[in-house]
Amino acid sequence: MPILVMKFGGTSVADLDRIRNAARKVKREVDAGYDVAVVVSAMSGKTNELVGWVREASNPPGSDSGGLYDAREYDAVVASGEQVTSGLMSLVLQEMGVPARSWQGWQIPLRTNNAHGAARIDSIGTEALHQKFSEGLHAVIAGFQGIGPDGRIATLGRGGSDTTAVALAAALGAERCDIYTDVDGVYTTDPRIEKRARKLDRIAYEEMLELASLGAKVLMTRSVELALRYKTRLMVRSSFSDDEGTLVCDEDEIMESKIVSGVAFSRDEAKITLLAVADRPGVAAAIFGPLAEAGVVVDMIVQNISEEGRTDMTFSLPVDDVSRARKALDAAAAAGEIAWREMVVDDAVAKVSVVGIGMRSHAGVAQRMFRALASEGVNIKVITTSEIKVSVLVDRKYMELAVQALHAAFELDVA
After folding, report:
1. What pTM was estimated for this model as a whole?
2. Is 101 labelled as part of a ligand binding site?
3. Is 217 annotated as a binding residue?
4. Is 34 annotated as a binding-site member?
5. Does residue 9 have a known ligand-binding role?
6. Which CATH superfamily hosts domain 263-409?
């Protein structure tokens, strides 16, 4: 029989009523003839509660431990949230007449590296799962975790349950991986900002990857990367309705795409400009090397035309990283590795992007975007482009206006 992977997030399994609701969806697919592997997250809020307990146990009042904890024990505690959900889901399915059993990552086995708390998947064994499918038994798998080389539970970090589901679907050769969440699909932009936003029936892997990396919270970047690599079809669906969702697939499955598929944005951006740095080989490395070592993720980079051997270097970064970036750059300057006349920080900017695989074969997208923003009086501070994306930095107070203007300019409310 064909295999279907179904993943339910924390809000979809927040209590027993919601677990029963999710189980009914699983039963529907079982009745349709699928061997089903269900991947579950911890109940909504449970992971944060468990993390809080780890921190409290590691750093009780009056302790001078500084909050340090053993990452292996952290994983042992935090992984329990998904394990509880998998057991409860299995019990509910059994009560509904669906033969099912729970699985933990080490039982499959889902093997990871030893980076406890942020492990990467090395391999997935499928023999045991296939054997149970052949016996008519469906699988309910605790997401977010596997087993490391040290034989200990290792958690996969942010978005780990989505990653588990997509990796399992690829390993099992599943027909599809359905991601159930609290939204009913992928929209042309956030409906809370643009009321005319439209749900997409299909979107290409590359477009979804760009949207995820730009802040769209429907799917995590890591899971979309896996889906793209293994050509695993994803369906984003709502746990709270039976409507068709959005299929994330190869662009060959999309008959003809619009030039632009969506408008993405990120409010939490900042911009740093270093004025009058030396325009010579090695300067860029001297700036961005210390930032990388400090764990600062730099996004957009612009270098001005040189004048008298000096130039200005501008880059964007998450606003929460500004303090860390300042310290790293100041330390590099104190060490004589780099010098500038002035550091200018703007922590009130936002990034707005248009994304679409249709850009590959159509000219004029950037011009159309810039004209739409200009017509609304929105000034552009920084521009970057890729094959299927154009991004700009604007004042944060104009972000919503910019999103609405671009949504209208590219007629995204029209199917």
Report:
1. 0.87
2. no
3. yes
4. no
5. yes
6. VC0802-like (3.30.2130.10)
